[in-house]
Design a protein that fits this description.
The chain is mostly helical. The protein has one domain. 56% of the residues lie in helices and 0% in strands. It starts with 9 loop residues before the first helix and ends in a 6-residue tail after the last helix.
C-alpha cells in the first residue's frame, strides 16, 4: 500500500526538507558500501554508552583488539586508563 501526503503547510514542508537534507548529507555512496563488503571492511559504528561499567567493558574490548593505547582525556579519564587498562599492556 502506497501513501502520498501532500501539504503546502510551511512547517510541514520545512520539516520534510530538513529530514531530506539530513539524509542526503549523511548518505554514503553505494560504490563505497560495495567496496567495503567486497574487501571485508567493517563500517564505522557509533555507540552511546551511559553506564560506566558498559564503557569500561567496551574500552577493554577495543584495547584487546589493538596493539597500542593512546589516551587523550581529562585527569579522571587518565586514572581510568591507568587503573583499569594498563594491565592489558604489561605483558
Amino acid at each position: 500500500m502506497n501513501t502520498l501526503i501532500h501539504s503546502t503547510e510551511k512547517d510541514v514542508v520545512l520539516q520534510q526538507q530538513f529530514i531530506f537534507n539530513t539524509f542526503w548529507k549523511n548518505a554514503i555512496p553505494f560504490e563505497n558500501i560495495i567496496k567495503e563488503i567486497e574487501v571485508g571492511i567493517e563500517p564505522v559504528k557509533t555507540e552511546i554508552l551511559e553506564n560506566p561499567k558498559d564503557m569500561l567493558e567496551k574500552t577493554i574490548e577495543i584495547c584487546n583488539q589493538s596493539s597500542f593505547l593512546c589516551i587523550c582525556t581529562s585527569i579522571s579519564g587518565m586514572r581510568l586508563g591507568y587503573n583499569d587498562l594498563i594491565e592489558l599492556y604489561r605483558s
